[in-house]
Amino acid sequence: MAEQDEKSAPPPVTGKATYAARARTHPKGDVWFTIGQAWEFDEDGRSGLTVRLAMTPTNWDGELHLLPIPEEG
Q1: Is the pTM value of this prediction over 0.85?
Q2: Is 21:65 a contact under the CB 8 Å cutoff?
Q3: pLDDT tens-digit series, residues 26-72
Q4: Whole-angstrom Cα distance, residue 3 to residue 31?
């Protein structure tokens, strides 16, 4: 079973993040802040996003938005 888990696991996170994970500080609030990042992957015919959350707001309702990180320059 460990072999099956290894094949289904997404690849490790590498490089710059593609998206910022943002959430409200309160379920009905207007203030949003970054709670993590996401990386795109395309490997072995599979594609998707790996999301890494660094924190979760107090009173968080579980909703988050993935927003493209603008390229600098």
Answers
A1: no
A2: yes
A3: 888 899 999 999 999 888 888 899 999 999 888 888 999 999 998 87
A4: 44
